[in-house]
Amino acid sequence: MLTRRLKTLLKPLSHPHLRLLATGSTLPPNPPNPITPIDQSLLLKVCTILFQQQNSPDSRLHSSLSSSSPSINPEFFLQVCNTFHYSWRPVYRFFLYTQKLPHFTHNSVTFNKMLDVIAKSRNTDLFWETCLEMGKLGLVNDKTFKIALKTLALARELKKCVGFFHLMNRFGIEYKLETLNKVVESLCKDKLVEEAKFVTLKLKEWVKLDGVTYKWLIWGFCDVGDLIEASKIWNLMVDEGFEPDVEVAETMMDTLFKNKKFDEAMKVFQVMRVKRMGDLGLSTYRLVIKWMCIRGKIQQANGMFDEMCQRGIQSDNLTLASIIYGLLSRGRIREAYRIAEGIEKPDISVYHGLIKGLLKLKKASEATQVFREMIKRGCEPIMHTYIILLQGHLGKRGRKGNDPLVNFDTIFVGGLIKAGKRLEATKYVERTMKRGMEVPRFDYNKFLHYYSNEEGVVMFEEVSKKLREVGLFDLADILERYGRKMATRDRRRDRVAVEV
Questions:
Q1: What is the radius of gyration, based on Cα positions, of the chain?
Q2: Is 37 exposed, middle or buried, given 0-12, 13-18 or 19+ CB atoms closer than 10 A?
Q3: Could you tell me which of 73, 115, 326, 327 has the fewest CB atoms within 10 Å of its CB?
Q4: d(CA 168, CA 165)
Q5: Which residues have a Cβ under 8 Å from the Cβ of 364 and sit 6 or more positions away?
């Protein structure tokens, strides 16, 4: 049983590209040892010993490892760490064993890998002990800071986050703005922006912040939807004498648009037009035009488009797709089709603009015809294409028709039961039977994901037949197409042209 479990864990590691990915994420100060092929049978044997004897005395464990692992290199150690993602004891016991080997020398990569495993297992004492040892050996790099700060931030140990920089400084690792910026970037991408802000403000006395630091803080607060804090950082950035660049402005504008603060977003855009007109490019105009079209301000969007063209900026399909959607949403169908027909190489964004615009006008049949035309021209639909079409035909909360064969509730509940989701099916039935409670929004993404397999092929074929029997040919074509094209991963790798 244990051997079978470990084989399952070790199976992905046999691929050479995955081994390179595992070891190439962090570069040590010195060039690593040349990567040599790992004996998978030996790796399985060593991992089995480490798992079974992780609580055994050192003498017994080391004796078993010595008899089964004649040659161990850093790459082998990394693969052992990859096997035990969240279990610190086997990894640390193996680390202690390798320290006694005369030919084995640990570097920043192996230490960081072990530190990451210890951090995920939340062994705080061993985590600090390892950090101190790395500091004494001079093996701390930017990757170490990222792992340490993320671990401490997740535990809300904010003072220790700052203290880690001071601790490493005592070991001769000086305060560096580049390191701080990389840490702030890492924390913000992990949605730990509050912790990143605390660290940066506490370290201002030792590290002089720059525009990159503020940029990532603004991006982080915008990413979590905290516009108030993002605005505060923006003002602080300006007070410090740093001019917000176009990327920061776009991040702020996009967040303001998403939070329905259209006027405030346009104020930011006007400020950038006055101060940094020469730096505004396609991405900025595309963003403004997109949201103007979503808001139905097609005349203003056309004005922005004309200004962009006068400045010599070439439009792309995403920008034209936004204008097409804006025209359709205002009922200007002929103009929208004229622009779409004038595009030399339409991509999926253009077809999505047409489909969404037609669905907003309640023209689901015409939107399905665009879907068919898209396939004929060799543009492959994606998951989002099927979702918006299903929402257009069935509604965002599903469909309740007179014919029980095509009732959405019937199809959905039967599908959940086939997929083994009996609890979810029971909850859904209880809600729909009471009818006093509003049925929650249906997740088409999960619905399609559950049937992206061989069983889904049969199910979608049967459903499409029943839909055609009652005259719902458009919906039948959409579901049948999905069943034939998205059945399994193997089929998606070897797609063939299928006519709808």
A1: 29
A2: exposed
A3: 73
A4: 5
A5: 358, 389, 392, 393, 474
Give, as one character, the DSSP assignment of residue 31.
P
| b/e 468-498 (16+ beta carbons within 10 angstroms → b) | eeeebebbbbbbbbbbbbbbeeebeeeeeee
Residue with tokens 């081994």: 19
Q: Classify the C-alpha dihedral 109-115-120-121 as positive or negative.
A: positive
The CA distance from 35 to 336, in Å, is 57
CA pair distance 201, 193, nearest whole angstrom: 12
pLDDT tens digits, 84-100: 988 999 999 999 988 88
SS3 392: helix
Per-residue pLDDT reduced to its tens digit, 248-284: 999 999 999 998 899 999 999 998 888 888 888 899 9
Coil, strand or helix at 450: helix
User: Please, where are the H alpha helices in 312-471?
Assistant: 317-329, 333-342, 348-360, 364-376, 383-394, 408-418, 422-434, 444-450, 454-469
Tokens at residue 177, please? 């703005």
Neighbours of 304 (CB within 10 A): 20
Task: Look up residue 175 and give its two tokens.
Answer: 């305060």
Asked which of 160-174, 254-268, 283-297, 375-389 is least confident by mean pLDDT, the reply is 375-389
Instruction: Name the pTM for this structure.
Output: 0.74
| Nearest of 188, 211, 210, 212 to residue 198 by alpha carbon | 188
